[in-house]
Amino acid sequence: MSDAASTSTTEVVGRSFALSSLITSAVLIALVTLPAVLPEFWTVNIFVRAMIFGIVALSLTFLAHYGGFISLAQMVPAGVAGYTIAVTVPDAIPANGFQLPYGPAVALALVLSTVAGLTIGAVAVRTREIYLLMITLAIAVSFYFFVQANVEFLNGYEGIRNVMGPDILSVPLRTPAIFYHAVLAVSVALYALVIYVSRAPLGLVLQGIRDNPRRISALGFNVALHRIVAFGLAGFIAGVGGVLLTFYNIGISPGTVSTHATISILIIAVIGGLGHPIGAFIGAFIFTIFDTFAADIYDRDRFNTLIGAVFLTIVVASPDGIIGLIKRGNALLARDRSPVSRSQTSIAP
Description:
2% strand; cell membrane; membrane; transmembrane; transmembrane helix; ABC_transp_permease
């Protein structure tokens, strides 16, 4: 490639980066100002719910995209965190004997969710593909029946309610604008964390394990340890989502960690696309929209059919989800705008 073509390609890449940064800034500004222009129903019931689902799906996308392993047990660390909050805060009903303020309770919940993630990773570390799916699904189902059967501490089928969340600067967390901006800030922070880790040594080793674990092992890296650490980080991310989901629902019950919830997280990740962390939030927004309004659009008793049809349509049209469609669109635009492409077009007979 000539120096002129190389310089032009660098300019195109630079313009693409500037355009991406501009779009990201505009989206963030729009999200911050949404409570001022949208009704409370949309900011709380749609956007807050979508961001919380997106956080849990982000843990799955992190494992799938950078590690190459798809886990169906991400609602387990989320549930561990949610139940830890529910059984330790003083205003929960029914109350337990050991109670903590919200700050230490949240810290304990995240520690236990990380431990849960590490445990899942240790159990599934030797498996891949369909066997990994089967083991993580078995863990998820076992956890669901465990919390449903535990009446003494987790209140069995009814679960624990009245988990109102802490106060922030003497204002209740569940104040709509406060809750929205808190969840948005946490979502952005976790997204930035995943991007940072993907470029750190841990993320680079994980991508190497995804592509060729034997070569990474030959280079002296402990493949099993890195996989377990990845599950631990994913457990921490899912735990944050579990804490926020418990605050959003003002409690937690076995339905929060049921098989239906587990499959919903997988659907969210697949709809958005496993090729980039932002796909988790895009998929969560689409899923929340249809999950909220499908009963009004279609037959109330068969609204899951509409959700399933949308899922199949997206997967068939783009197996790598919405992110795949965006990448293919950007590639077409970049090819059309490339000086090399234009020069080839101009000399074509």
